[in-house]
């Protein structure tokens, strides 16, 4: 592995700490003397070791901020809908004991939009939200049939 250096230019905040004392942090880090990038990763105490993480340019950070804000708004609206449904639940049970609950459907998240969205619109790329990976069929050409024994 190639040698590299890092310098934490600004500690922007910590998000969590695990049992071993490592913390997930949001920092501005210069890697190998390059211009600093925003960085999210796990760090050992005193920053002596690091875990895998992600670095972001300012543009990527702004885009991520928009995506996170949109998801938080969706979660908040879902929470308020669920809270309203729970408040009405006892009334429905008394008046419609035999009927099926008509809870509101959860919305499907909007399709991801990025500054480079054109890279991901080719017809041969699956939609990451809708498509599920297909499992390959197992090769049974050399399998033994125990019923024939």
Describe the structure.
Helices cover 26% and strands 23% of the residues. It has a 4-stranded antiparallel β-sheet. Among the domains are: 6-56, Roll (Transcriptional Co-activator pc4, Chain A), CATH 2.30.31.70; 57-89. It contains 1 helix and 4 strands, in the order ββββα. A hairpin with a 6-residue loop joins strand 3 (37-43) and strand 4.
Distance between the termini: 54 Å
CATH level-1 class of the domain at 6-56 = Mainly Beta
Write the CATH architecture name of the domain at 6-56: Roll
Q: Helical proportion?
A: 25-40%
Question: What does the largest sheet look like?
Answer: 4 strands, antiparallel
In brief, what are we looking at here?
The protein is an alpha+beta fold. The chain has one helix at residues 58-95, and strands spanning 6-17, 23-31, 37-43, 50-56. A 4-stranded antiparallel sheet has the order 1-2-3-4.
